[in-house]
Design goal:
The protein has about 180 residues and is mainly alpha-helical. The chain has helices at about 1-10, 15-40, 50-60, 70-95, 115-135, 135-150, 155-160, 165-180.
Length: about 180
């Protein structure tokens, strides 16, 4: 993977062709991550796996100032981007349901209760994850890398510079925190 690292460094210095080559080399890995993310999300967004990967690529392209030291850091950041894409889609869908920029007319007081629970739950999890990040940023990173990117404990440990046992403890702590926050 040394050539991926060299390509990432070249892309970080403004070489657009190197950035395209990184995407070509890691495309299948990003599709696997997106497939995992979409399987967990169900039908709460209109995106499919390919659309999520392409949207992630477009956002990574726009972020010129990013400099990734290796493949794992790139994939960890891509997992955050995919998470943000799904959250943005859910928020946009909620805004559309509530009229977006159209004039809001309330027909009954029960309309808010009629919203499906799955997308509301995704937003609640996102808010709990933000709260976790404020309390302990590393715990939030472990959740993002494991849950949203589907990285193995060994990959997370290497990326964060900790042991696998620490990742396991962090995962348990994060799950307990999120369960308490979601009650």
């Amino acid at each position: 993977m040394a050539d991926i690292t060299a390509l990432l460094k070249a892309a970080g210095q403004g070489d657009d062709q190197a950035g395209d080559e990184v995407m070509a080399h890691l495309y299948e890995m990003l599709r696997t991550m997106a497939r995992s993310r979409m399987r967990r999300s169900g039908d709460i967004t209109l995106l499919d796996t390919t659309s999520l990967v392409h949207e992630c690529y477009l956002r990574l392209e726009r972020a010129d100032e990013l400099d990734f030291s290796d493949r794992r850091h790139y994939l960890a950041y891509a997992s955050k981007v995919m998470h943000a894409i799904v959250i943005d889609m859910v928020r946009a869908r909620h805004a559309e349901r509530r009229g977006g920029d159209a004039a809001h007319v309330e027909l009954t007081t029960g309309i808010a209760d009629a919203l499906p629970g799955s997308s509301d739950e995704v937003l609640r999890v996102h808010e709990a994850l933000e709260e976790l990040a404020q309390a302990d940023a590393r715990l939030a990173q472990v959740v993002e890398m494991r849950y949203f990117a589907g990285l193995a404990e060994s990959e997370i440990a290497e990326c964060l510079g900790v042991t696998e046992r620490t990742v396991q403890r962090d995962w348990r702590k994060a799950r307990l925190f999120l369960l308490a926050a979601l009650k």
